[in-house]
Amino acid sequence: MRPLPPAEDLGEGVWSVPVPIPGNPLGYTLVYLLESPRGPVLVDAGWNHEDSWGALTAGLESAGASVGDVYGVVVTHFHPDHAGLAGRVRAASGAWVAMHRADAELVRGFARIGADEQHARQLRRAAEAGATPAELERLAESAPLFQPPAPPDRELSDGEPVDLPGRRLSTVWTPGHTPGHICLHLPDSDRLFTGDHLLPRITPNIGLYGSDDGGDPLGDYLSSLAQLADTPEDTRVLPAHEHRFTGAARRAAEIAEHHEAKLDELARLLDGGGATLWELSARLPWKRGWDGMEVASRRMAAAETAAHVRTLERRGLAVRADGAGGPPRWRPADAAAPQAPGRS
């Protein structure tokens, strides 16, 4: 695990507070503290773990505040390394918690169905993707049960100001990584808090998971990246992972180009016989290689492949061809559909 940097005064009433993600190669989430006359407002809160809580409270103390002083927590998206501690901060301070309404609806849905059903949905999706019985058995034994974060008190929409007394903090809706992912713009110091939407070296996972609603998350993500095309070069970008940078528009274009190249590669892998999501994923290049992945990582990779296939479908380049009694298969849209037995 990478060393945890200290809390840092970034000037103009903004602090960076690294909060560890135990057991995760990302190392930590960068929580940002924005000073206000009513008390600090946090951008994200970090993972729900005692080590994370200790780092968050110590970071607040470095900034001359305590967790009891927190006025509000605005969550860029519902994932546990961002929203996990929001409920505990609220319990300790009476702070409000806000997120985009699309993610708020997901959080309520997770709470309704419970962790066991969410886990069962993940297993069903892996089976539909083409995972083998042995892989499904390992996945059932090893996959952690997802615990949804605390539901928010406030729901945000695109362009809506966040309650930051004495300053303006604007919501920028950037769906893709999650349906309700948001960035936040602080115009008085020209800072853009990007959560996971825009990171300096890596790209966020864009996938179809256990609750596929028929949408196009990669298409949404590419559109959200295009929103940043007019961002001034010197706007300071404050992501939730890695490090701060400038050149948001250039970085957004690089990430879009990466996904377009993957879409092209995936389209070339489709053939007239069709392939399952699992088979397509195994043919794609991955950083650690498909053969070196644990089954939980394969499920994530297949979810990302599914999102890319969905975009190919929307562009008229791929079609689903349901196999008889087996997982769905995809083939090129311009390939002749296989004839049924007995036809000529």
UniProtKB/TrEMBL annotation:
Record region (Disordered): 319-344
Record Pfam families: Lactamase_B
Domain Metallo-beta-lactamase per the UniProt entry, residue ranges: 28-241
Domain of life: Bacteria
Compositional bias per record (Low complexity), positions renumbered to this chain: 333-344
Coiled coil regions in record: none
Record-linked InterPro entries: Metallo-B-lactamas, NDM-1-like, RibonucZ/Hydroxyglut_hydro, WH-like_DNA-bd_sf
Name the UniProt record assigns to this protein: MBL fold metallo-hydrolase
Protein source organism: Streptomonospora arabica
